[in-house]
Amino acid sequence: MLKKKKKENKKEVYALGQHISMSADKARRVIDQIRGRSYEETLMILELMPYRACYPIFKLVYSAAANASYNTSSTEANLVISKAEVNKGTAIKKFKPKARGRSYPIKKPTCHITIVMKDLSLDNKYVEIDSLKKPRWKNKHTAIAYPDMYSSGGIWDKK
After folding, report:
1. How is domain 12-132 classified at the CATH fold level?
2. How far is residue 42 CA from its own chain's centroid?
3. pTM of the entire structure?
4. Nearest in space to 76 (alpha carbons), one of 30, 42, 28, 127
5. Domain boundaries along the sequence of the chain
6. H helix runs in 35-120, sequence order
7. How many whole angstroms separate alpha carbon 59 and alpha carbon 47?
8. pLDDT tens readout for residues 87-123
C-alpha cells in the first residue's frame, strides 16, 4: 500500500548571507531588534538605525521578501520575520609587518546571517497580526503616584 503525500504550501522562505565581514556580536545587536516584526516595520527600523550591520541585514531581508514573492507568490504585507539568527564564521587571518622585522597577526571576524520569513496569509491560525513582539508594558499610562510621598507624618519628619 502506497500512500500519496499531500503537497503542502511552503509557508517559510529564507535568505542566507555567508562570510559577511563583521563580528557576530555586532550583527546580533541589530538582529535582536527585528526578530518577530513585520516586513515593512523591519525595513523602517533598519533604515533608521545608525549601525554598520544594518546594510547587509537590510539586503538579506529584502532578498528573503523577493524569494517569498517569487516562490510562494505572497504579498509583502503578510510577511513576518519568524526566525533570524547570526552564527560565527571563519576569521580571516593576515600578518601586519611591524618594526625590527617582526609581524603581528590580524584576525578579521566574519559571520553567517540567516533570515527566515513566514507568510501569515497561508497560516490558518493567524488572521491579522501587527507584530509578534510582546509589548513591554500592558498599559503605558499606569503610573502610581502617592500624594505627599516623602512626608508620612511620622516622628522622623520633624526638623
Report:
1. Ribosomal Protein L22; Chain A (3.90.470)
2. 8
3. 0.70
4. 42
5. 12-132
6. 39-48, 54-71
7. 11
8. 999 999 999 999 999 999 999 999 999 999 999 887 6
